[in-house]
């Protein structure tokens, strides 16, 4: 690992002028050594201390990897005569291609069948790496050997490399033969690679284009979300696409799939494409102000605003607080009236260029916990009858992804409540680089995040308790999606017996919604009775066409059933409304896991639930046997 410059930001509650004056007279301090670790000394002059409101930034020459953050904060706080110091974790530099290659090299020698595929997935995420880089060339040779040993995933990647001349001399004919072999064995990425190539080389040949579309659709149906991006690009590039609303609808849905579930550079490209719809004749991008609690490491920009969040958890899993403006393309004739958020102007205000470009823009630096809770209370006092809509996302979500989720609930679903997001440290990739571990250079993201979510429970429950005390639980709607529903359920019950709970909630939460919950059914059956004392109403939305939950149960959870599975196996218990969305047309979109954000029947039923509507026109059945949603009811 190369030594890279980093910023250590120490937040303090202090008077700017007085503190600056003290610092000018203070001797240059040296950073302490971590217990049992190497001495790391960094002298700096007062001029190298940058002062802004409530923040001191110190430029270090190198990253003291063995240094403990809280010790730095305490030492600097003592030397600069500051109180209440706290350390904000820096954003680690992205892994370089060389680091990845060096980490995988010993495993390629001992495990040549599988390791080259993992290395290729990691290298694909390195921005700016030339296809003709010697590192790619070596990886392609390793893929060739794995292919010759019978690894069909390696066959797919090697075939695509030949197709495109990526790290090897181009040989499209041989590449297509290899991809045909992998596709015949049912490898989804092989269909995707074939489809992309056929589309790109179709020219004026409509038959070749249609064949490419068919292959991409097979890849997408098989579970390769990366296929959604070229399909969506084909949608928007078709003749007359700008005047075709149905085609635009389809493109947005496909871009959303690629952004949420894609790998490598695909999600970012899809997000940028989505932002182009902000000026479409059929769509608009209405900004939504969202209050955020984030249990992740954070990087601050030079002006002390939040620049980004990582997929690593914060110290002790404790959240920090900030706010953002986010948006998502919305049909102009569906645009809701302006509604104020906790921070900033009403979200019906004109979108800023930054929001239109990125779909999300963090609008403040860190907000003190007390001030954050006070602002939530004040917002409700100014709007009698309003509630907080607290959204907790699932696996494979960045903070930006989660903001998209709550924006879709507010704009498309028109759900009641002032939007608030709790973001735990889930990652963005299924396979992730682990360069600090020489024994395991990559790890399974889903298995990792299962533990991260479990370890986040205590701090999440503590935050829920503080929020409930500030605004009363009767004014809070809890909406958990996928693994976020599991975190909500754990916080409302026993946090998996991890330590002492921070106290009882002062009443019952207004509504609790579990959408496509990635919760072990047996665990739920053993704990759901505790919900009666903490929630006035609990509703579960399920489907038997949820590909993501199917993968969770069958691939990652040893076949154990998930609570979000609908159909004849839907879980129904007393005191909880179970609602099956399985029979709705098009419910399979976005791998069947995002129906709560995009299906109008589901969203209308959620809205009716949260508003306490006396009837649900789209439901059949009853609470005892479970409700079924029907179409053509609105």
Provide a descriptive summary of the structure in words.
The protein is α/β, with parallel strands linked by helices. It has three domains: 7-88, no CATH class; 97-279, Serine Threonine Protein Phosphatase 5, Tetratricopeptide repeat (Alpha Horseshoe), CATH 1.25.40; 284-515, no CATH class. Helix content is 40%, strand content 15%. The chain has an eleven-stranded mixed sheet with strand order 11-9-6-13-12-16-17-18-19-21-20, with helices on both faces. A four-stranded antiparallel sheet has the order 2-3-1-4. A two-stranded antiparallel sheet has the order 5-10. Helix 5 crosses helix 6, helix 11 (245-261) runs antiparallel to helix 12 and helix 17 crosses helix 18. It is globular, with a radius of gyration of 26 Å.
Report the sheet with the most strands, covering strand number, pairing sense and barrel closure.
11 strands, mixed
Strand order of the largest sheet: 11-9-6-13-12-16-17-18-19-21-20
Strand content: 15-25%
Using the alpha-carbon principal axes, give the shape: globular
Radius of gyration: 26 Å
Helix fraction bin: 25-40%
Distance between the termini: 58 Å
**Main structural class:** alpha/beta
Average pLDDT level: 79
Strand segment tally: 21
The domain tally reads 3
- Helical stretch tally: 22
Could you name the ranges where pLDDT drops below 50 across 5 or more consecutive residues?
1-94, 345-353, 433-439
């Amino acid at each position: 690992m190369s030594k890279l410059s980093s910023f250590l930001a120490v937040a303090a509650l202090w008077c700017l002028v007085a503190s600056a004056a003290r610092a000018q007279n203070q001797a240059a301090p040296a950073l302490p050594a971590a217990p049992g670790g190497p001495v790391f000394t960094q002298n700096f002059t007062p001029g190298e201390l940058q002062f802004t409101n409530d923040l001191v930034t110190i430029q270090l020459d190198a990253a003291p990897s063995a240094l403990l953050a809280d010790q730095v904060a305490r030492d600097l706080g003592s030397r600069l005569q500051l109180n209440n110091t706290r350390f904000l974790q820096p954003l680690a530099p992205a892994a370089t291609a060389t680091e990845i290659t060096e980490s995988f090299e010993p495993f390629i020698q001992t495990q040549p069948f599988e390791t080259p595929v993992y290395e290729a997935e990691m290298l694909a995420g390195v921005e700016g790496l030339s296809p003709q880089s010697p590192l790619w060339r070596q990886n392609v040779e390793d893929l060739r050997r794995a292919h010759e040993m019978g690894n069909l995933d390696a066959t797919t990647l090697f075939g695509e490399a030949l197709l495109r001349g990526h790290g090897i001399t181009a040989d499209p004919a041989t590449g297509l033969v290899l991809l045909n072999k992998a596709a015949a064995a049912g490898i989804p990425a092989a269909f995707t690679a074939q489809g992309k190539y056929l589309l790109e080389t179709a020219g004026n040949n409509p038959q070749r284009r249609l064949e490419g579309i068919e292959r991409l659709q097979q890849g997408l149906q098989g579970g390769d979300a990366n296929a959604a991006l070229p399909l969506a690009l084909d949608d928007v590039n078709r003749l007359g696409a700008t005047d075709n609303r149905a085609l635009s609808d389809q493109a947005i849905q496909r871009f959303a799939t690629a952004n949420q579930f894609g790998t490598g550079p695909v999600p970012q490209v899809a997000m940028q494409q989505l932002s182009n719809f902000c000026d479409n004749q059929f769509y608009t991008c209405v900004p939504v102000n969202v209050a955020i609690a984030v249990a992740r490491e954070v990087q601050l920009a030079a002006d002390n605003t939040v620049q980004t969040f990582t997929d690593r958890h914060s110290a002790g899993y404790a959240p920090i607080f900030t706010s953002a403006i986010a948006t998502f393309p919305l049909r102009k004739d569906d645009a809701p009236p302006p509604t104020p958020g906790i921070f900033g102007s009403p979200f019906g205000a004109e979108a800023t260029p930054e929001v239109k470009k990125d779909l999300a823009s963090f609008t403040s630096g860190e907000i003190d916990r007390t001030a954050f809770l006070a602002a939530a209370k004040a917002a409700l006092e100014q709007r009698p009858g309003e509630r907080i809509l607290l959204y907790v996302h699932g696996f494979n979500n960045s903070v930006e992804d989660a903001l998209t989720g709550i924006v879709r609930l507010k704009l498309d679903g028109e759900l009641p409540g002032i939007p608030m997001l709790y973001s735990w440290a889930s990652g963005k990739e299924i396979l992730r680089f682990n360069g600090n571990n020489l024994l395991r250079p990559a790890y399974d993201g889903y298995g990792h995040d299962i533990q991260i979510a479990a370890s986040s429970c205590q701090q999440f429950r503590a935050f829920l308790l503080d929020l409930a005390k500030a605004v009363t639980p009767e004014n809070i709607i809890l909406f958990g999606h996928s693994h976020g529903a599991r975190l909500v359920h754990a916080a409302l019950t026993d946090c998996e017996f991890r330590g002492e709970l921070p106290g009882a909630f002062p009443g019952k939460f207004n509504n609790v919604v579990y959408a496509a919950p990635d919760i072990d059914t047996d665990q739920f059956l053993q704990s759901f009775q505790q919900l009666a004392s903490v929630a006035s109403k609990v509703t579960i939305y399920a489907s038997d066409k949820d590909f993501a939950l199917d993968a969770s149960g069958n691939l990652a959870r040893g076949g154990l059933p998930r609570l979000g599975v609908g159909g004849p196996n839907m879980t129904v218990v007393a005191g909880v409304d179970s609602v099956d969305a399985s029979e709705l047309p098009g419910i399979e979109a976005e791998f069947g896991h995002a129906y709560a954000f995009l299906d109008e029947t589901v969203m209308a039923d959620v809205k009716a639930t949260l508003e306490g509507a006396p009837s649900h026109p789209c439901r059949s059945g009853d609470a005892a046997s479970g409700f079924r949603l029907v179409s053509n009811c609105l």
